[in-house]
Amino acid sequence: MCTQPPFALFALADVSIQTENWVLQEAHDDPSVNNWWWYLATLDYRAAPQRKPDGTGQTGTSTPIDPSFSSPFVGKRLEDVAQWLKGKPQSVDLDERYFGVLDKQAEKSGKIAICRLNDPEVEREVAWCILRAADYSTLFLAGLDSDLDWNELVSFQKYTLEL
Which of 28, 83, 87, 124 would you call most buried, defined as having the most Cβ atoms within 10 angstroms of its Cβ? Predict the structure, then answer.
């Protein structure tokens, strides 16, 4: 596995608390993973999972989330969340390349857009996204390996966010 959970999950559209809870729970309940791998991102890096000195794994956001939660990323662009992810302190324990996005499709179908940051030499900061069912999203990320050609994969399944 070339990914390092947990993964940041950004709500870029106005998604209900019920949908956010459902998506997180479905991703957790995948019997292959059974872990809280998605962290519902806020602006505060201190609220994000922090690296443990002993190297043991961290978890993301568990359900139920606070009913007053409101994503500070609603209305933002992929480039904005890419900057947040690239700007995180080393103490923040989130995968540095892969992340998820909740857009209007999440409200309709419970699917997560899985995105990847491009290599620094590529002009476009964020590679195209792939849409995955919440209950399959973590298994998909766990199955990624370093030999994967993301651009080839995306060429068959490219997804444009619905914001």
Answer: 28
Strand order, beta sheet including 38-40: 38-40, 7-11, 98-102, 111-116, 129-133, 158-159
**Res 138: pLDDT:** 80
What are the pLDDT digits (tens) for 112-129? Answer: 998 888 766 556 666 667
In Å, how far are 6, 12, 108, 109, 111 from 3, measured between CA atoms?
Answer: 9, 23, 28, 25, 20
* Predicted TM-score of the model (pTM): 0.87
Q: Classify 99 as helix, strand or coil.
A: strand
**Closest C-alpha to 157, from 86, 56, 26, 149:** 149
Q: How far apart are CA 110 and CA 125, in angstroms?
A: 26
